[in-house]
Specification:
Blueprint: E1 3-4, E2 22-23, E3 44-50, H1 58-74, E4 78-84, H2 90-100, E5 105-110, H3 112-120, E6 123-124, E7 127-128, E8 141-146, H4 152-156, H5 163-172, E9 175-184, E10 190-193, E11 196-200, H6 201-209, H7 218-228, E12 234-240, E13 245-257, E14 279-285, H8 289-301, E15 310-315, E16 317-322, E17 330-333, E18 336-340, E19 343-355
Helix pairs in contact: 1-5, 2-3, 6-7
The protein binds adenosine-5'-triphosphate (ATP).
Length: 356
Amino acid sequence: MAYYGIAMLLPVPKSSSLFLTPQNSMAPDFSAAPARSATDSRRRDLVFVVNPKGANGRTGKDWKNLLPYLRSRLGNDCNISESFTSGPCHAIDITREAIRQGADAVIAVGGDGTLHEVTNGFFWGGKPVPCEDPEVSHTTALGLIPLGTGSDFARTLNWKNNPEDAIERIAKGQRSRIDIGVIRGEDGEYHYFNNVADIHLTAKAGYYASKYKRFGNLCYVIGALQAFFGHQNQDLKIKVNEGEWEVYSQVTALCIGNAKFFGGGMKITPNADPRSGNFEVVTLQDFKWYHFIRYLHRLYNGTHLSVKNVSSVSAQTLEIEEVSGNSNIYVQSDGEFLGFLPRKFCILPASIEMII
Ligand SMILES: Nc1ncnc2c1ncn2[C@@H]1O[C@H](COP(=O)(O)OP(=O)(O)OP(=O)(O)O)[C@@H](O)[C@H]1O
């Protein structure tokens, strides 16, 4: 499938178009980028990774409308490159290549799924991706223009749903280190997340919700209803901070928050803070469908921690296995389905610089 490659890291004349020539390769094409000269050393190289299919296609349209303002606000001080994703996981490859080339920032344009993929592009084989240009001394920052369906990470940062505000933050370029969560499964693969990783009912609901994104935020309601059919609470074995294994009985859902929100605005881990160095782990046990109806408003406004059978702990590492051994407990992170238990979760404190 054709996609739009990046025209990289050069001053963009004000009159030139930001829309770039379609390439036929499946990898980002940086080969045409001439070496940077001493004169452009003070210009920041920004790579915008745009998911044109985000928010049921709205992201692509909003981005097109935003471009003239973005160019006028950033074009004088920054070299602007854009790259459209061609499908799932493409944002990971684009990001890795941009970091290797020494971009100042890679900016996710889309929803939490796009942010999640760009974040995963900051790492490879369990380590941060290094810049391969010996003349570059800066690190690459992560940026975000939230244009997705849920945009839950932006909520934790108290960002308004206004892309012009996001461009203003990018113009200022203030950076802050944030924590990132990492998940490992039996295959030894690393998987990174910004927001919330969750297990069992909520993960199953997210899995189904992803099939109904065309209905906007309603997809989360449809996904939850579908997940309830045939759902059974399960006993789980959990090890917190390398301590002893403990059995948590009749777990309905377990949510590991690096940030506060998931599912399009549910404040599930209300004390999580991506600058704290810890996860907040919230467990719902022995919940029935009618508990969700009764406490839904509290789950949304983050006042559910005092509800019976809801617990919260702070943790840096967490290992989770099922007791039954049926291999049917769903795991997701940042709304992306990851497979089934067992999994190990660790926090990587202050591991990425984010434009904030
Ligand atoms: N060109 C593409 N075509 C189809 N899917 C894509 C394409 N590019 C990326 N994707 C996939 O789209 C998924 C969802 O994108 P994104 O998160 O931007 O929007 P969203 O789901 O509407 O928002 P949110 O995650 O905030 O609810 C991503 O996880 C990604 O794998």
